[in-house]
């Protein structure tokens, strides 16, 4: 077994004292495992002894298709292609496309939550849009706040037009 330390990895074990801390010298290569896309590396934390794969804590974890296909599905959705069309074009099940898009959205939210800490706000714009569901039987409001210059969506709340939802949008 190699003693080469992986500097760009951190321990994903929630019980480990070094969880999330990169370049601590505690992550070493452990083994390989096979997938249909080739070999993947496993790592071991020398502090807690847990092993994990190279795709742990990524959207590619336990993905049984090529990563490029997952990326293409996400890219198509960003460009406005619907789930049914994506499934037909890429020849995957509709449920797979839907699950992958939910997964991509969850990781995008996590990324934004971690990375968008200190954003310079120059001009904010708050707005609300009324829409209908179920053949116009149900009214729904979409409350938004965006930073105009960067076009960064800071807040979105979907629900009724109440003071509580407006407060949630502005927080």
CATH architectural grouping of the largest domain: Single Sheet
Shape: extended
Order of helices and strands: EEEHHHEEEH
Largest sheet data: 3 strands, antiparallel
- Report the portion of residues in β strands: 25-35%
Helix content: 25-40%
- The total number of structural domains is 3
How many helical elements? 4
SSE-based structural type? alpha+beta
Q: End-to-end span in angstroms?
A: 51 Å
The fold-level CATH name of the largest domain is: N-terminal domain of TfIIb
Would you state the CATH class of the largest domain? Mainly Beta
Alpha carbon gyration radius: 21 Å
Molecular structure report:
The chain is α+β, with helices and mostly antiparallel strands. It has 3 domains: 1-57, Single Sheet (N-terminal domain of TfIIb), CATH 2.20.25; 67-115, Orthogonal Bundle (Arc Repressor Mutant, subunit A), CATH 1.10.10; 124-170, no CATH class. The protein is 29% helix and 28% strand. It contains 4 helices and 6 strands, in the order βββαααβββα. The chain has helices at 67-78, 83-90, 94-115, 163-170; strands at 27-35, 38-45, 51-53, 124-133, 138-147, 152-159. It has a 3-stranded antiparallel β-sheet, with no helix packed on it. A 3-stranded antiparallel β-sheet has the order 4-5-6, with helices on one face. β2 and β3 form a beta hairpin. The radius of gyration is 21 Å and the shape is extended.
Search tags:
single chain; 171 residues; alpha+beta; N-terminal domain of TfIIb; Arc Repressor Mutant, subunit A; three-stranded antiparallel β-sheet; 4 helices; 29% helix; extended
């Amino acid at each position: 077994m190699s003693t080469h330390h992986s500097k760009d990895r951190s321990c994903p074990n929630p019980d480990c004292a070094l969880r999330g801390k990169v370049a601590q010298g505690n992550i070493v290569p452990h083994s390989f495992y096979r997938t249909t896309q080739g070999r993947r590396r496993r790592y071991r934390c020398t502090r807690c002894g847990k092993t994990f794969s190279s795709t742990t804590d990524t959207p590619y974890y336990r993905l049984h298709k090529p990563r490029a296909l997952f990326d293409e599905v996400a890219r198509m959705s960003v460009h406005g292609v619907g789930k049914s069309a994506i499934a037909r074009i890429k020849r995957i099940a509709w449920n797979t496309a839907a699950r992958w898009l939910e997964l991509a959205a969850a990781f995008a939210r996590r990324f934004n939550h971690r990375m968008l800490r200190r954003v310079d706000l120059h001009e904010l714009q708050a707005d609300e849009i009324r829409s209908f569901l179920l053949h116009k039987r149900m009214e729904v409001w979409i409350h938004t706040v965006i930073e105009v210059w960067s076009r960064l969506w800071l807040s979105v709340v979907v629900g009724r037009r109440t003071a509580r939802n407006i407060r949630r949008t502005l927080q």
